[in-house]
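Input record (one chain):
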Amino acid sequence: MRKSLIVAALLAAVSCAPKTSVKSPDGRIEISFSLQEGVPCWSVSADGRPVVDASPVGLEAFGVDMAGGYRLLSSTSGKVDETWTQPWGENKTIRDHHSYLTLKLKNGEGVFMCLEFRAFDDGVGLRCSYDAPGDSLRIKDEITRFRFSEDALSWSIPGDFNSYEHLYRRMPLSELTDANTPLTMRRSDGLHLSVHEAALSDFPEMVLRKTSGTGFKADLAPMHWRDSVKAVVPSSFSTPWRTLQIARDAVGLVNSSLILNLNEPCALADVSWIKPMKYIGVWWAMHLGIASWGGDKWHGATTAEAMRYIDFAAENNIQGVLFEGWNDAWKGSDALPDFDFTSPAPDFDVEAVVEYARSKGVEFITHNETGGNVERFEAQLEKSLGWAESLGIHAVKIGYAGGGLRGAVPRHSQMGVRHFQKVVREAAEHHVMVDGHEVIKPTGVRRTWPNFMTRECVRGMEYNGWSGGNPPSHHEILPYTRLLGGPVDYTPGVFDVQYRNIQGLRQVRSWGRPGTGCRVNTTLCKQIANWVVLYSPMQMACDLIDNYEGHPAFGFFRDFDADCDASMALQGEVGEYIAVVRRAGDRYFYGATTDTLSRTLVQPLDFLESGTEYEATVYADAPDASWNDNPYAYSIVRSRVTSRDTLQVYLAPGGGQAISFVPAG
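The corresponding structure, as predicted from the sequence alone:
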């Protein structure tokens, strides 16, 4: 009898013990909690194999111990399975299916810590919420570690707090010293991983620094280069989510919705004014050096040129025109003592141009370059946004050119993050969509603020105008790295990839670009395919419109719809190749690109609607095409296909293929 009572008591104690692990809905991925000498730790396994060994998680603050001395008070767990929609996106309908575990802890200094785990079929997220004594906290450091269980091949850019405009490095994880996120890896067993963060809105960005072996530590951007304080937060607050996407193949990372699912729902009651678009502009002429931002006779954004671009947009099913250089403040440098973000250049009649664009059904996209002076921009923010709204301007490109923010503040600091959030919130109040250049990396905040349409945050097209350019493999790395965070304003679409059509203009260019040997390192067809592969709801055809006029291959962009309903990465490997399809209404758009190797992809068309016949228009590299010595060779072929068919998709070295599928008849 006594033995039975003891067993019953032990079983009762076990059943009351807090739960310390949680599995994804499909049971493949497990995230676990442990306390090691009072320090909270997390670990992850997938398919029964360790992925992240027990690693500390949390923050350090000045004046109060937040990092250790904890004891576990309780835990709660459960599952969520719901579907939500967004006004635009790679996929407008998203399923949020996860298991959660929330652990409540307390240490001897009266600090309560709530550690949240979410396990999805495509990875995990974790974040800390704190309730500490006092009114505010000065964050000293983050102690969160990522102790990866084994080595892997990695793709990353340096952990730079000012810029993401770097080429990607391919190296073993054990040789990597630092990285910005997303940091993508492929293990020897084929498992693909990517570290990032989600819901970054009032905190400094996180990069990773090597600790030892395959272990890394989260490192936060400082508030100031000369300051040891990383952030100032209320005593009750939550960190952004630290994320680890997990997939059995490379395209599994691309098809993941984990980052979006870890963000808050849309904060806007009315999103009817938020509309994806295709756009063109005079921007590329500046980077080629045949036009300037202003202040001389080579000014690109003149009234006459604006009218010409508006006419072209209206004639070619293009919804917007970006007028970079319209503003009298920015002339390619921060030369003026003060900027007025509503004053046009002397040769740009902004009211007349806006009215002409409206008469043609074309959106005027304004441009505000701050030079990194956020105080000056914020002082005029309400005025400039109100001015835009009064003229019926619904889109703005913002820029922060230079080495950082004014006052020696890192661009990716808490101050920078707060500023970018302030801009997008106030823009929403005036029904203005935002395209951000030199801003903070995307972390899914577009779910909450869907008027933050697209961002640069990448070494983009412009580098081909005045440097050695981007290598052919660059575009086959980005979908598995940078684009895991969100849309990219890469500005693809150069048709004159070797700059043959500006040779006669080089004697009059306003600055010394393009330099000797500059070019775009792709075939023509890869530029077309990149409109599909490099996703943006504001997608640019960046070349001079003279290079598009009458060009048969520009038919793809005329037909292309940036407002897609659903997307899927079909096949690919990091840094080698990728094939993507996007559906807009009843039409499909397919894009595939490759690195320096030619490939022939076997592509089933089972993504098409069953029972419907489609007219496929194929824009393909010619058999003798090559990015290096024959980039312009291509063909356009039309045929009838159904979902039962399979295509042989040929990609030349550094090439691509784009296909539009339109229901026949």
